[in-house]
Amino acid sequence: LETLGLGTVLEIFQRGALPVSVEALVTDVFGEKNNRGAMVISGANGIVGAGKMMQLGSRLVPYGVTMVGLDFPSAPDGIGRQYQGLRAAFGQEGADSIMAGIVRMSYDGRSLPAQLGSFKPRFLLEAIPEKLDIKKSHYEVFRKAFPEIEIRSVTSGFPSSELGVGIAHPAFPHEINKVWEIVEPEPSEITQLFWALGLIPVPVSDHWSFVLDVIFCGLTLAALRYHRATNMPYWKVDKYVRRDLGPNPFRAHDAIGAKGANFLTWSCLHHLSKIYGELFTPTADLVYRKDSGQNWYPLNHFRPMVNWSLAAEHEDEFRNWVFGPLIQMASLMLHEQRAHLSHLNAIGELCAQLRNGVLAMIRRLGPDTAIKYVEGYHRLHSEAKANWYPDELGRTEEAAWQQLYVNAEHDGTVGVITLGREAYNADVDDELNRAIDWLKTEGIDRVIVTGDFHLTAQLVGADTSEFYSALENVERGEAIASQWSRTARRLHDEFAVSVGFING
Q1: Peptide bond into 173 cis (omega under 30)
Q2: How far is Cα 446 from Cα 366, in angstroms, rounded to an integer?
Q3: Residue 456 per-residue DSSP state
Q4: CA–CA dist 234, 311 (Å, integer)
Q5: pLDDT at residue 306 above 70?
Q6: Taken in order 23, 28, 29, 32, is the CA torsion positive or negative?
Q7: Residue numbers of the domain that contains 51
Q8: Are 401 and 357 in contact (CB under 8 A)?
Q9: Which of 160, 177, 203 is the last residue of a domain?
Q10: Does the global pTM surpass 0.90?
Q11: CATH of the domain at 29
């Protein structure tokens, strides 16, 4: 919360109230209730624009904010396609009420509709194509018409310093994923409003592709390089990436829409390679599919019926090709201080579908093993040796690395333990025990256990991926069954009072 300028969780309990209210922030951003301005989303019929129209419209329309969707006359009706999902979430009456607050307008890309001024635009969320000159011209048109308007770009790659506006980069799927990477000099009322509306704004530094697309596009590139080295089919590479890390990078591109996703991945990697070199240089097959828009997976009836397993001697080669560059990219982001460590780790889980965030993965491997994977990658791809910062991995014993999911604070009498992950796993268990140990050494015997009021509202259950090894390993099964419940009992046995609090 402190990174959003909203104080600490402990202060919420001391105050007995949240640090800000939606009504007050809506007034700050859009004006008084009887004279409220509009929010404009340009490129509103695209995948991002239409998804965010639903996500933000469902939250802002009830507060009297008109949502204006702006796009070309020829653009397919992306907003209309969202209606069935809106109705499923809010019911017929609720969906109709939200849609009544959405106004759709067409423009030619060079000038704004004359009627737009009557809605008093206060905030523009730009979701137009990833072309720098087009974006800059777009902002100029809006600033000329509405000099006081706040502008944020949903760009997945261009830094704020290149665009001249703040960044609010959302994660896919856009209707439901609440995470936004935020780039701005200091926390703004818009960012705090996003938080108050139940979204998850995450501050990141102003570097190309921020954090999410270094991880997601970088992992896709690693999978592509392994494909080129071994000729393993894309769908098969996906299978092994999913087994070891969690995501299906190629299937994800097809699910998002290969034509757009291929271009965005190429664009991010292309611009990153101009700065960081071969570590991010797109492969020829990505360039081809960027131009063709072709899916990565063949039609199901063209996929082979006979499967085969990766030979044991090739497992290390696979991990060198895939783990190596991912760890190297993480070292680069750490070196550049692209985000708070807990944020950098969480973005990989919440947005890139990593089973364990990249920092948690490195911590589990240990710095020596992690470094060996990168060195193995460099033996396979020596051109990528630049921008490798192994010293960053030697800090895993420092406090920031040990609090990726669980934090603790106290006021001398009452302690607060905050959980920043929805699924309980070994990492959360270890960090929760450290938090309890610290509070006990501080002489605290009353404790509140809660979500962190940012990345997660509550702990909803166990991470079932932790159970896979326990199905074959009795010792692992006994460790989970005994250790996790032992940790929970500590909250009862070692504190005079322990209270669980769920916000929202």
Answers
A1: yes
A2: 34
A3: -
A4: 17
A5: no
A6: positive
A7: 2-203
A8: no
A9: 203
A10: yes
A11: 3.40.50.720
